[in-house]
Design a protein that fits this description.
Shape: globular
Distance between the termini: 93 Å
Radius of gyration: 29 Å
Number of helices: 13
Structural class: alpha/beta
Largest sheet: 6 strands, mixed
CATH architecture of one domain: 3-Layer(aba) Sandwich
Helix content: 25-40%
Strand content: 15-25%
């Protein structure tokens, strides 16, 4: 499933296209999604410029009552109806559904490393590598250097196919709704994109239905948001990654607001949320001072971002942490014998500054103020004498 704001924007664009093409258009949106949270969010985010019926996949509209706003039958006949583009069909483009899902993820991320794509797609890494090679052979993506390591970047041809699969009308500027909302540092971004794989390794029996990075939720933008089921309950897993560049005062203000917004969102839809913060241990330890009070439908956890695949056991209405191991390794001094001789790795020599000093300017000196003007007048009068 695609990101909620992205999908809601696509429905609005299709509504605008129908208004231009039909005198009295109706739109039926069938949502094929487990649980109730995604369905309710789609209903909340669309603008309803025309009568729209948003129903589950196993239900069809019966009459005009299913449409909002109310749809009245039209008595106008004999009007010219301009043609509109056909809906996307995957059979017409010769691409597999799994490859199309990987292509859509790259359309949103633009660039990504190989390990990040399986985490967001929910496929095995071996299967994703095969799909990436197929997409590369079709010239939809390309191999590119990203920071220190190599990764993948989507090409314009792949972006056009992704937009076509979303049924986006031609000539629409869709990039602000497609891509991630904010730019983050390399490590910050990598931890957020690995959130789904992190949860699946940490909690046994968890089922993640989908995961998005940098997506808006009630006027906030979590670094990653996973939606799934655990212990037979539909849940959201909210991730915040903090690299420690903010002061304690700024952290306190930001996380108080985000916790309260997460509480309001959980209360509105009757869903439980696990709120997790990751970062360096000295940063994560400050999270405990940012909690104003415990919320009844939130579980708050904190974790060191260096330990992949491990998370503390959460409990609704309380907060947990597992920083004891990190504290132990930070305070323990290693007294054992090293497996190598440190002398064979001498320190890197410092580069000498070979630049020559900048020569002094030969341009005439100009006046800088009244004092210099007095000196200039005095010198000039002495020359005349």
């Amino acid at each position: 499933m695609d990101c909620r704001p992205t999908q809601a924007r696509i429905i609005d664009l299709i509504s605008n296209q129908l208004i231009k093409a039909r005198p009295h258009p109706y739109l039926w949106v069938s949502v094929d999604a487990p649980g109730s949270w995604y369905f309710n969010e789609i209903k909340r985010l669309i603008k309803r410029g025309i009568p729209i019926a948003i129903l589950p996949a196993d239900r069809a509209p019966i009459d005009e009552i299913d449409f909002r706003p109310y749809a009245s039958p039209s008595t106008i006949q004999g009007l010219d109806n301009p043609s509109i583009s056909r809906p996307f069909s995957i059979e017409d483009h010769g691409i597999k559904s799994s490859a199309l899902r990987v292509l859509r993820i790259l359309a949103r991320l633009k660039t990504a490393h190989t390990a990040e794509i399986p985490s967001l797609a929910g496929f095995s890494e071996t299967h994703v590598r095969t799909l990436l090679k197929e997409l590369q052979a079709d010239q939809l993506i390309e191999w590119k250097r990203i920071g220190k390591y190599d990764g993948w970047e989507i090409r314009n041809k792949g972006l056009r196919l992704s937009h076509r699969s979303w049924n986006i009308p031609k000539g629409v500027h869709f990039a602000p709704y497609r891509r991630e909302f904010r730019y983050a540092g390399e490590r910050h971004r990598r931890v957020a994109r690995m959130w789904r794989a992190w949860l699946e390794n940490a909690y046994r029996g968890i089922e993640i239905w989908d995961c998005w990075t940098e997506v808006s939720v009630r006027y906030r933008i979590p670094d990653a948001l996973a939606w799934g089921m655990h212990h037979d309950r539909e849940m959201l897993f909210w991730l915040e990654v903090d690299s420690g560049h903010s002061s304690r005062k700024v952290m306190n203000r930001n996380y108080r607001r985000r916790l309260y917004d997460a509480y309001l969102h959980a209360k509105e839809w009757g869903i439980q949320i696990v709120f997790c913060i990751m970062g360096p241990p000295w940063v994560v330890e400050e999270f405990g001072f940012c909690i104003p009070h415990l919320f009844p439908n939130l579980a708050m956890i904190r974790h060191d971002w260096r330990e992949f695949g491990k998370l503390p056991v959460y409990e609704i209405g309380r907060w947990r942490e597992d920083l004891d191991k990190s504290r132990f390794f930070r305070t323990k001094r290693y007294d054992g014998k090293l497996p190598f001789a440190p002398a064979q790795y001498p320190p890197k020599p410092k580069k000498k500054n070979s630049k020559l000093p900048k020569p002094k300017s030969t341009k005439p000196r100009f006046s800088n103020g009244s004092s210099d003007d007095d000196d200039w007048i005095r010198e000039w009068s002495e020359r005349e004498e």
